[in-house]
Amino acid sequence: MRHLPLILFGLFAAATSVHAQQLAATCHASSSYDLTVQANSLLFDRPAPAPRRVLLEDGTLRVDGQAVALNDENQDRLSLFERNLRALVPRVKAVADQGVDVAVQAIRSEAGGLNLGADTRAELDRRLAADAADLKQRIAASQSTHDWHGTAANQYAQRLASDIVPLLAADLGQQALTAAMSGDLQGAAALRDRASNLANTWPARLQQRMQVLRPRIEALCPDIQRLASLQQGIRDDQGRSLDLLEVGH
Questions:
Q1: pLDDT band at residue 13 using 50, 70 and 90 as cut-offs
Q2: Could you read off the pLDDT of 40-55 as tens digits, one per residue?
Q3: Is 164 exposed, middle or buried (0-12, 13-18, 19+ CB in 10 A)?
Q4: Closest Cα partner for 176 from 196, 160, 158, 162?
Q5: Are 226 and 84 contacting, i.e. CB atoms less than 8 angstroms apart?
Q6: Which residues are CB-contacts of 190 (< 8 A; sequence separation ≥ 6)?
Q7: Dist. CA 8–CA 127, nearest whole Å
């Protein structure tokens, strides 16, 4: 059942990654920075190009460690930008929470077509509930986009998959063994094909299921566009545009 890791790797991570993709596609919004929400400030950082580190705190601006003088208008704009962005964070997290629920339901639906034993189904439900609760807790506690991409996200997705893959693999393996020992080689082959087909068709079906999030994402777009407008044209002391958030058409 070597295809199962391909199916389950990142299922819960999809709740956040697909959500992020939809946010970018639906609102035409993107940023080259990561965002960390701190107690008294917002930190935008990226490896390149400069500016690499932008710190906003109550209308003040520091870029790559240097304070930037602002006129009253730009100071007010950045203060409003910071306040509005902080207000947007819990709404984005709420959509990600719903994405977790969608992913859990998707796994249960796919598992329903595998003819799993009653004990396996019960244990799967228990593990899904525990993993979903853990991911929702992580979403609630997270204050940085660094938590949801690259190595950190992949390691978390692998850990979640390792919690579920052995359970399903054992059940399907037993089904295949039972079929083979009874002489039903065709049935054993069908089980392998089912796992393979599931891996091949899963991404498209997950994307389709995630469309249920679209209305809630669309509701975020006006506020995201407002944020982009507030910071548009603000420059550092070297005349470089910050471009913390970019919105296309």
A1: very low
A2: 999 999 999 999 999 9
A3: buried
A4: 196
A5: yes
A6: none
A7: 13
Cβ-contact 196, 3 below 8 angstroms: yes
Q: Residue 43 has which token pair?
A: 């930190």
Question: Can you list the alpha helix ranges (DSSP code H) found in 62-184?
Answer: 72-112, 118-141, 150-181
Q: What are phi and psi of 237, to 5 degrees?
A: -75, -5
Half-sphere exposure of 45 (CA within 13 A, CB side): 13
> 159 CB contacts (<8 Å, ≥6 apart)?
none
Give tens-digit pLDDT for 75-96: 999 999 999 999 999 998 888 8
> How far, in Å, CA of 60 to CA of 75, rounded?
7
pTM of the predicted structure, to 2 decimals: 0.81
Residue with tokens 């509701």: 219
Beta-ladder partners of 247:
29
Q: Cα–Cα distance between 115 and 101 in angstroms, integer?
A: 22
Radius of gyration of the chain (CA): 23
Residue 224 DSSP SS3? helix
What is the C-alpha to C-alpha distance for residues 100 and 210, in angstroms, rounded to an integer? 10
